[in-house]
Amino acid sequence: MDVIDLGMRAFLINRILWMALVLVGLSLITFFLAFVVPADPARYFAGPHATNAQVEALKRQFGLDRPPYEQYLLYVWRLFHGDLGLALHTRSPVLEDLAVRVPATMELAIVSIIIGTFVGVFVGVISAIKKDTVIDVIARVFSLGGVALPGFFLALIMQYIFYSQLSWFPAGGRIDTDIPLQQITGLNLLDSLLTLNLPAFLSSLQHVVLPALCLSYISLATIARVTRSSMLEVLSQDYIKAARSKGLSNFVVIYKHALRNALIPTSTVIGLTFGNILGGAVLIEFVFRWPGLGMYVTDSFLTVDFAAIMGTTLLIVLIYLIVNLCVDVLYSVIDPRVNVMQK
Amino acid sequence: MSLLLSKKALTKIQGAIIAIVVIVAAIIGAVYYVTLPSPSPPPQKSELHYGWVTDMTTVDPGTGWSTDALMIIRVCYDRLVQLNGSSLNIVPSLATNWTISPDGLTYTFNLRQGVKFDDGTPFDAAAVKKSFERQLGIGQQSQNFIALDNVEVVNASTVRFNLKSPFAPFLGALATCAGSIVNPTAVEAHKTADDPWALGWFQDHTNGTGPYILQEWKKGSSWTLVQNPNYWGGWKGQHLTKITCSIITEPATSRMMIQKGDTDISFFISREDIPELQMDPNIKIVEYPALSTLYLTLNNMKGPCSDVHVRRALSYAFDYTSVLSIILFHGHQAKGAVPSALWSSAGSSNEETFQYQRNITKAQEELAQSAYPNGGFTLQYLWCSGVDEERRIGELLQSNLRDLNINVQLVEQTWATLTATTTNPETAMDIVCLFEFGFAPDLHFVMYDRFHSSRIPPGGYDWNYFNSTQASSLLDQAVLTTNMSQRASIYHQVDDILVDEAVSIWAYEETKIVTMGAWVHGFTPNPCWVETYNFYDMYVVDSEKP
Fold it and tell me: CA of B181: how far to CAs of B75, B135, B274, B458, in Å?
C-alpha cells in the first residue's frame, strides 16, 4: 500500500476547514441551548424594581424581543464585523471583557503548563529510571495527589499556609494595586519586561506563583504518569540496547534517544491537559481572585447572558482547537517519521 | 529487565533540572525580600482597603441599582437631601432648606452656596434641573420620580420641582441614589449622537460634588477612590484620603485578609466565623438592623395558596423560632409586611402588629375551613441557587407542613431564571423564597412596589400576585397625604390587611454584620444604606494595626 503524503499545507487547510465547521455547529447548539433555559436578561439588567415599560424598552434596545433565529443571524452578522455584542451582566462589550480576561487566564495557564511540563517530565523520567525504588514510590504518590486532590481544596490550603501563616505570597490578584503597569499584551509578566518595569515584574511574579503551582499540580500528575509509562516502554526497546552497546553515554541515551521518543504520547497529553487547565482555572481563579475567564464564564451562565456565553464558548473552543492543531504539527517535529496526513 | 545505567548520566540530567529549580527558587526568594508584602503606606495618610464580592458594573446614578454601584455613587455624588447618621430622618445636603406647597404639588429648594463639582464647575440650580432631566431621559432608574412633571430654575440658587400629583414620599425619593446630582458640563462634553446622556462615560467615571472621585477601575480586580479637593464639606479633621477595593470572591480569603490587616473592613464574612473573630482583640464586629427581610411569597392568584385559609394555615405551621438558627440568631422574627426599622420614617413603629406563631391546632382549624381540610396536596417552593439559607428554610418548611399532610417540593433556579419564572403568571410557583432590601426611607416604596395591584407581574414586584382593591386604594391614599401621622395610620391599616390575609410568610429580619479592624473609626451604619460605607466620616489609625 502506498503512503500518500499530501504535505503540510494541505493538512493545515483541511484542519482549518474542519475547525470552522466545529465552530459553526457549536455556535448553533450553544445559542439555542440558551433559549431552552427561561431567563429574562433585560429584567436582570434593569433591576427588580424597574417597571414593565422600562424592561420592555431595554428588550427592544438589545433585540431580545425578536425570534431566536433572527437573533442568531444578527449575532453572526455582527460577529463578522468584529462585534461580539454587549455583555449584560457587566454592561461592557464582550470583546472588551475578553480582552481583559483572556490574557489573564492565558498567563496563568501558560505558567502552569510550563511548570507542569518541566516538573511532570522530570518526575516521570526519574520515576522510570528509578523504577520500583523509594524515589519512584514517592514520585507516584506525589502524582496521585495531583489527580485526586480537588484543586479548590489545594488552593485554599496553599493560601492558608503560604499567605496567612507564612506571609510569603499575597492572598490573590495579579499585581499590587498601587504599582502601575502599561498594558500591551495583557500578560503582566511579558508587559513588565517589555516596558522594563521591574517592580511590576516582581509583583506579577509574586502573585502568579501560588495559583500557577495549584493549577500545574493537576496537570503535572498526568504528565508524570504518562511520561513514566512511555519512558519505561521506550527504555525496554532494542534500539536502546543497541545505542548503549555502541558505547554511547547514558546521558545521550536517555536524552537524545529515549526521551524524544517517550515525549510523543506526553505531548498529546500536554495538549489535552491545556483544556483541563482552562477548566480547572475557574476554581483556582475564584480562590486567588484572578480576574480571568473562569468567573466571567460562570457569571455569564448564571445570568444567561447570551452574548457573553457565545463569546466565551467560541473563544475557548477556538483556543482548544488551535492548541491541538499545534500539538499535531509538533509530532512531526519531535519524530520525523510521523506523518500526520497518512492515507 | 534491568536498566544498567551509570550514575554519571543520571547526575547530568538531574543536575541540570535541579539547577533550574534552584534558580527559580532563588528568584522567588529574591522576590520575597525585594517586594515584602507590606499593605500599609506611610502613616500620614488615612487609607482604607476593603473587599467586595463582585465587580462593579456601572457607577452611573442613571443606571446603577446594585450594591456595588451604590457604594461608589453614595460617596462620589451628593443629593439635595440626605439621611441623618443611623436614622431615616431627612436632613439638608445640597439643599439647605425647602418649602412644600399646601397642595403638595410644588417643592422649592434653596441651594447651598459655594459648592463645586470635582472639576471645579460651580454647582447651581441648572445642574439640578439637568440631572433630573437626564434621570428621566435615561428612564432606567427613574421609578422613584414618576410623579415628577418638570424641574424649574427659579434662580441660580433656587430650584423648584413641579409634580403631576401629590407624592408624599418625594423627599425620601430625593435622598436615594437615583436623586444624585451629576455635572452637566461632563454630560455635554461626553455625549454623542448615539449616546445623548453620556451613558458610556458615566459608566466608569464619576463627576459629582461628593467627597470622593473614582480614580481608577481595573475591571475584574479593583477600584480606587481619591479625595475630591473641591468638596464643600472641607477636609479639616480626620477623613479617609484614599479608598481601594479589591474583589474577594471567597469568604475564607476575606477572613484571612482582615485578620492579617490586609483589608480593613468587610461585610463579607461568614456568620460561622463571627464567634472566633469576636475573640480577636484586633477585630471589632458591629451588628445593626437593616431593611432586610426574608419572606416566602405565597401565590395569591392560583393554586392552593390562593385560598386565604390555606395561607393562614401555612403561617401558623411555620416554625419561626427554629428558622433563626439558620442565621445563627443574628436577627429576629419579622413583624408585619415591612422591615421594622422602616416604620421610623413615618414616625411610628410596628410593635402592635400581629405576629403568627407556630401553632398546629390553629393551623389545622384554618385548613379545615379551606377546600383541602385534610391537606393532601403538593406545593412547589422555589429558591435561588447559591443561597444556602433559602434551601434550608425550604427543608424546614417541608418538615413543618408534614404536620398538615402537605408536601413541599423544592425547586432550585439561578436568579436570572427565577426572575423569569416568577414574573410570568403562567409559570409562577406556589412559594418563592426572597430577600427584600429597602433602599428608600419611606414605607411607600416597599409597600406599593410589592402589594399594589398595579404591580402584579409581568412588570411589577408584587410576586405574591396579591390583588386587593381595598389595600390598593389605601396605598394610593397614603401617597397623596402629606400628614405624617395620617400616613402612618393608613400604612398600619394596609399592614393589618396583609397580615390578616397572610399574603406571605414573613420569616425573619436579619441584622447586618460588619467586621473591621480595631484601627478603623467613624463607621456609622444606616439601615437604608445597607452594605455601603460612610467613607468621609471614617478614618484609619495605622499605629493601631497589628
Answer: 12, 10, 38, 32
Are A206 and B31 in contact (CB < 8 Å)?
yes
In chain A, what residues touch B41 (CB-CB under 8 Å)? Answer: 178
Pairing of strands B431-437, B406-413: unpaired
Hey, are the CB atoms on A291 and B250 less than 8 Å from each other? no
Q: Which three cell numbers stand for residue A13?
A: 487547510
Cell 468584529 belongs to residue = A82
Write the DSSP string, B246-282: EE---HHHHHHHHHHTSSSEES---GGGHHHHHT-TT
**Which of B6, B56, B140 is the best residue to mutate to test the A interface, defined by the most A CB atoms within 10 Å of its own CB?**
B140
Determine, for residues B203 and A91 on separate chains, whether the beta-carbon distance falls below 8 Å: yes
pLDDT in tens, chain B (546 residues): 444 445 555 567 777 787 788 787 777 766 665 555 554 444 357 899 999 888 888 999 998 888 889 999 999 999 999 999 988 999 999 999 999 999 999 999 999 999 999 999 999 999 999 999 999 999 888 888 989 999 999 999 999 999 999 999 999 999 999 999 999 999 999 999 989 999 999 999 999 999 999 999 988 889 999 999 999 999 998 999 999 999 888 888 889 999 888 999 988 888 889 999 999 999 999 998 888 889 999 999 999 999 999 999 999 999 999 999 988 889 999 999 999 989 988 889 999 999 999 999 999 999 999 999 999 999 999 999 888 889 999 999 999 999 999 999 999 998 888 988 998 899 999 999 998 888 889 999 889 988 999 888 877 788 999 999 999 999 999 999 888 899 999 999 999 999 999 999 999 998 989 999 999 999 999 988 888 999 999 999 988 887
Q: How far apart are the first and last CA of chain B?
A: 62
Q: Which domains does chain A have, with CATH numbers?
A: 7-89 (no CATH), 93-302 (1.10.3720.10)
Domains in chain B, please, with CATH?
Answer: 56-203 (3.90.76.10), 218-288+513-544 (3.40.190.10), 289-510 (3.10.105.10)
Of residues B240, B225, B220, B232, the one with CA closest to residue B72: B225
Q: Which of B247, B262, B416 sits opposite A40 (nearest CB)?
A: B416
The answer to whether ipTM exceeds 0.90 is no
Q: How far apart are CA A309 and CA A90, in angstroms?
A: 12
Stretch (H or E) spanning B67? helix B67-76
Tell me if A159 and B65 make a contact (CB, 8 A cut-off).
no
C-alpha cell at A228: 513514566
- Give the distance from residue B243's alpha carbon to the nearest chain A alpha carbon, in angstroms: 11
E strands of B170-228, at which residues?
212-218, 222-227
**β-strand B242-247 against B47-52: which pairing, if any?**
parallel
Q: Are B390 and B507 in contact, with CB atoms under 8 Å apart?
A: no
Query: What is the rounded CA–CA span in Å between residue B538 and residue B496?
Result: 41
Across the interface, whether the CB atoms of B419 and A236 are under 8 A apart is answered: no
**Kind of pairing between the strands at B265-266 and B504-517:** antiparallel
Nearest CA in chain A to B427: A38
Whole-model pTM: value is 0.83
* Torsion angles phi and psi, residue B289, rounded to 5: -70, 140
Q: Identify which of B20, B57, B253 has the shortest CB distance to residue A172.
A: B253
Q: Which residue of A has its CA nearest to B146?
A: A51
Q: What is the distance between the alpha carbons of residues A331 and A260, in angstroms, rounded to a whole number? A: 11
Residue among A193, A289, A3, A162 at smallest CA distance from B250: A289
Q: Which residues are paired to B380 by β-bridges?
A: B409
Q: Do B12 and A251 touch (CB under 8 A)?
A: yes
C-alpha cell at B323: 428558622
CB B443 within 8 A of CB B343: yes
| Minimum distance, in Å, between the CA of residue A19 and any CA atom of chain B | 31
Q: Do the chains contact at B218 and A177, CB–CB below 8 Å?
A: yes
